[in-house]
Amino acid sequence: MEKKTAILMLQDGTTYKGTAIGAIGTTTGEICFNTSMTGYQEIYTDPSYFGQIIVNTVSHIGNYGTVTDENESNKPQINGLVVKSFSSVFSRSTAEGSLQDYLDSANLVGIADIDTRALVRHIRQKGAMNAIITSETDDLKVIKKQLQATPNMEGLELSSVVTTKEPYTVGDPRAAVKVAVLDLGIKKSILDNFTSRGMLCKVFPSNTTFEQMKQWKPDGYFLSNGPGDPSVMDYAVTTAKEILEADKPLFGICLGHQIISRATGLETYKMHHGHRGANHPVKNLDSGRSEVTSQNHGFAVSMESIEKNDSVELTHTNLNDETVEGIKVLGKKAFSVQYHPEASPGPNDSRYLFTRFLEMIQENN
Hints:
CATH architecture of the largest domain: 3-Layer(aba) Sandwich
Family: Belongs to the CarA family.
CATH class of the largest domain: Alpha Beta
Distance between the termini: 64 Å
Strand order of the largest sheet: 10-12-11-13-14-19-18-17-15-16
Number of helices: 11
GO molecular function, one term: glutaminase activity
Number of domains: 2
Order of helices and strands: EEEHEEEEHEHEHHEEHEHEHEHEEHEEEH
CATH superfamily of the largest domain: Class I glutamine amidotransferase (GATase) domain
Protein name: Carbamoyl phosphate synthase small chain
Helix content: 10-25%
Domain Carbamoyl-phosphate synthase small subunit N-terminal: 4-134
Structural class: alpha/beta
Number of strands: 19
Largest sheet: 10 strands, mixed
């Protein structure tokens, strides 16, 4: 079967020609790269990537196929895919199908056989920007016009798009500890880390108020990861403020961390090109130890605003660029981290945070 040509064009006009993978079509979104060596399926199904085109920096993608259990949500969430070498065959005996079939069934457009190393260097230098992938036309003027119509990630509220439409529970109904989860774009493996520690979770849509969640009588509250700009999510910030005012145990990851931070008066900003990978070193300022972490975020909490705020304490910092990786709210039972302690993909150095949250709840009961 003859391979079809695809074109990738960046917002600054940089253009690459490669081979179409996945579905034949056209897609746009913010382009960003992930440096993880494995776990491509977990990356593609993470709702935090909603609206983005992902560049996998590892050379070979698709070689171990796909397995339903490795989905972090009920479908791929990315807008498009860019890889160097794409494998339409797989060698893992437990795989249920090829990545090509997986992408095709999800109508996901991608491009292969391009110099991803050069592309990543370009993004690192120029910063995150919008891009378009198409296997439908090679008319660069038409492609550029379609790209110009794509909205920028900064200022976009996306949690309401990816959140659950109805509340649902996960875990043992007889569990002694109940956690109300505000779904801003949650990953399945986060819920797994709660339920494996004996907690019952009730997952609520992103616009659920504190009063509505409180009626379930939870022992603690969790604000999840998710896509988009935290600075336009006043509804979630209000919920976080009310949980803090009620002095209930509160834990946040990634976007949830940013929402809790904004609820305490801290500021967030759009990063130059973000952190996305499974080997980011973070220093735990309490223990003095380094943790290797999995990360996926394009926004961050301002270090300067922490230095001016006496209601929060910095608990974790990034050893690569000294950005904020974790805080605790002084005088409250609340803490949050920017990285992903559940990993998937990634190391398990930070899974103790789920146990810490459970212990906080138990001490409060």
